[in-house]
Design goal:
By secondary structure, this protein is of the alpha+beta class. It is about 40% helix and about 15% strand. It starts with 5 loop residues before the first helix and ends with a strand.
Length: about 120
Amino acid sequence: MDRISIERRRANMRRIRSEDTAPELIVRRLLRQLRVGYRLHVGDLPGRPDIVVRRRKVAIFVHGCFWHRHEGCARAFAPATRADWWKQKLDRNVERDARAREMLNNLGWRVCVMVVSRGW
């Protein structure tokens, strides 16, 4: 059983952003300070990397622990409500991430995954 109401859970989930997250903004700020040119969310590359430095063929993914299930991460917990559905969903995310990294590597790109958890 969920600890909060369905309406509150729905509101929480709607607030989760896929672009312009705080960790992503930190990485972008650092790249700007280093005067590194980059593009955001490039759709013509596998996995649609969060940040792309084309000149150096570097694709950067900024991943949260919950959604991307980093191996050995204590913050990669599974929700108790609808556990089967969440397991399948999160397992698909991990598989999709691995495929995207492999395809980028095969295309000659260097892939950097920035692992970000709450309390970063």
